[in-house]
Amino acid sequence: DRVAICTERSPAMVVGLLGAIKAGGAYVPLDPTYPTERLAYMLADAAPVVLLTQTSLAERLDSSLPTVLLDTPACDSCADNNPDTQARGLTPHHLAYVIYTSGSTGQPKGVMVEHSGLRNLINSQIEAFRITADSRLLQFASFSFDACISEIATTLCQGACLVLASREALLPGEALLNTLQTQAITHVTLPPVAASALAPDADLPDLMTLVLAGEACPPALVKRWASGRRMINAYGPTECTVCATLYLCDARDEKAPPIGQPIANTRIYILDAQGQPVPLGVAGEIHIGGAGVTRGYLNRPALTAERFIPDPFSSVSGARLYKTGDLGRWLPDGNIEYLGRNDFQVKLRGFRIEPGEIEVRLTRCAGVQEAVVIAREDRPGDKRLVAYLRPQPGVELVPAELRQQLAQHLADYMLPGAFVMLETFPLTPNGKLDRKALPDPEQSAVATRGYEDPEGELETLLAQIWQELLGLERVGRHDHFFELGGHSLMAVSLIERLRGAGWLLDVRSIFSTPILSEMALAIQAHQGKPAFVVPPNPITGDSTILTPDLLPLVKLSQTELDTIVSTVPGGVANVQDIYPLAPLQEGILFHHRLQEQGDTYLLNSLVAFDSRTRLDAFLDALQQVIDRHDILRTAICWQGLTQPVQVVWRQAPLSVNTFVPVSAENVLAQLQTHTNPRQRRHDLSQAPLFTADIAYDPTSHEWLLALGFHHLIGDHMTLELIIAEIRLLLQGRAGELPDSLPYRNFIAQTLSVPASVHEDYFRTQLADVDEPTAPFGLLNVQGDGEDVSEINIPLDTTQARAIRNQARRLGISPSVLFHVAWAQVLAQTSGRDDVVFGTVLLGRLQGSAGADRVMGLFINTLPLRVSLAGRSAREVVQATYHNLTTLLEHEQAPLALAQRCSGVMPPMPLFSALLNYRHSQPNADDTTWDGMRLLVTEERTNYPLTLSVDDFGEGFNLVAQAISGIDPTRVANYLVTAISGLTEALA
């Protein structure tokens, strides 16, 4: 009798397995994560007499079967002693289990495994792996994967400890590493892809035996893990009871390890097409004989006869060989080298997959005429399934819809990562499919929609603005802003262009109505709503006294006002305006006051000039820019005040200090030390919040400038605007400079939003979050950046294109994908599947007129929550897109307010990691900067872990910063892996 078992990874899984075997039945493992239709087929094909499961899973399975719920008291009434096997007439040739593998006919096939093969496997692996009663083995494999029985049986037969962990704790990477360490695992079997995800510098002192199986083992893994432990490369198909050969790896090996030699009572033959043994070193098909050869395929007599053939080399009656379809050759030392498959079956992440099964399912999808599925490795180590499709005439196939249809029938590991549409398939001269000629799976960079002319004056205007912003020749009324390449920074420009034409639109409408015709309707709906009016500044250049009634944006007493005026050179005559700080300014000031030495938010750059004349021209242009913009002439006052304020001076000359080096050698290093922000502090009450130190370097014959810029008065976009204006001034094009706009308008609009609006939002988002998200255990968010290291990694062009393709297809910004990928990294490194991290928002989307060209600190850091558990990649992306869109309405909420709305109690932080996604202009050749070169630039934060993504319009650059003890390269590579996996999962 066959007994179906469907349980979550738990002791119940082992209890059910042992109960079925001891009773004389053959268990049939069912993975509860499989699609319902696949589970139903396996139940129908296996025809079990009973189903063992858990209460939470029973509804998904065939209710007509007698069912035992392993997690209910009724199970306790079962027999509490072992059945008498002799009385039951059980022999080693009775079935132990039936396990299903991928089938080329479109349905999985059940492999029937007898007790004799299982017993031989257990004895062989216990000896080879050196398992003792003191061993601790990790149960890693899926219950429906044949390695699972190997892990369970070898452990229990030796009286060792079997460690069961949750799916989340076994995720390749930090989660798996943490499980191996905390559970003191001594033995583990992993597919190479999971071992590759373990940090190369990971400390696993308890791990005595590492077994790699399921797919080819790269030599890099041997070098990394073979020293100091037994590392075994194992090989064997399900049809031969899990394992047929083993090889003890040597860290000194330069090549990929062979699959070794046969285990006990197993014979390996390498035969040619005529079934004859091949000479030493000649490739042939691997055939396996001996105790491990299984009975065959359940209900598939023809296929069994095809793959299980009589053994001509054995004297035992009825002996058979299994034709593996794998190619190999004998090496001089008696080991076998694995050379791949001789058919189209593939192995991916340890799972054996018949592309034919996927092809059959694809041809059942609506609109598909013909399908071919292959495994491609366009980048080393990055193997994925790619489906090539011929649509039916007049049908446009959508990859996301195809993947969704397949997911109802196939396991996740069988879903193609890309879908390529072809009019015809390439053929060889003899008329067969030419698989090598199938094209690269890259898709069109821009999603196509049916074109229709804009209708009416507003749609026409909107289309013109889109064309200008996006650099397109034509935009139709059904086109999608984000599919065409729009992003949040461009949204600011869109709002500003519309405002200039007399139309109003808020940022949320851009994200909620990204299709042109729908956006036009949203614009019309906004008309008639009262626009926010900024109170005018009553202070004039003729004012001789300042009184509280002249300050509409802040409440100060006369005493406080007099205190402020006393800090300004020139007194009242030099005061242009006074108003409160923006939320992030308050946070930066808090950290400034907390530090006694240095200043985390003082940005320092070192620039070399080929002459003093060129240096002076640059400094003169900088002073002109300072003179033009209020925020660059702003000081910060807080001492003796009930609240900190910013004070705009009318004149704020930049002080240039000449540094005299101790010697003529290493002048650059001396200047760096002298201006190091880790030791230097700036008097924030004195404007401008710039520092300028110059020195002459006789070695290079250059003038050096150490330019400091405090984050309190500007962000990344402000720096770009400053550089753009300096460039125009150096080119003699001052007349092209745009009108300067005051920062006070932004402050006024920020203050106009009641705190209760923000509180309601963040309580809804965060009230049930009662533990911080702490990747790598990092919790200190009061750092000074002293021990932070940084790494820059550009993404390759292929990956960047794939990210943009997916974003356009989903109608979202690439930033959403990076937020999800960063959440996955934090989930892996914190052991949580519900994570919170800080996202740096542009801060200009709710701004008033000219928000895209006002200088000042607009950015703000706010918490973003991403829940990963129980969701598909697409669901997580859509939820994150929604959360980011709604968060934008609160982009200037104080971080302290958001943290108070969570359940995390002070002084614990809500999060300790940041993501800063910023749109940047790639460096272009420009003669303006001839004779100048940037030597050093440094930016720091108080957070211990930060990832910045620079979006250059086509390419992306990652900048990872991490405190001592955390390798930023490792962090950046985690993100690269996550974003790659995400784009494939969405394909």
Automatic annotation (TrEMBL):
Family matches, as InterPro entries: AA_adenyl_dom, ACP-like_sf, AMP-bd_C, AMP-bd_C_sf, AMP-binding_CS, AMP-dep_synth/lig_dom, CAT-like_dom_sf, Condensation_dom
Q: Tell me where in this chain the Carrier domain is found.
A: 453-527
Q: What are this entry's molecular-function GO terms? A: catalytic activity; phosphopantetheine binding
What GO cellular component is one of the record's annotations?
cytoplasm
Q: Which UniProt keywords apply?
A: Phosphopantetheine, Phosphoprotein
Q: Which cofactor does it need?
A: pantetheine 4'-phosphate
A biological process (GO) of this protein is: secondary metabolite biosynthetic process
Q: Which residues cross the membrane?
A: none
Query: What protein family is recorded?
Result: Belongs to the ATP-dependent AMP-binding enzyme family.
Its protein name is Amino acid adenylation domain-containing protein
Q: Which organism is it from?
A: Xenorhabdus szentirmaii
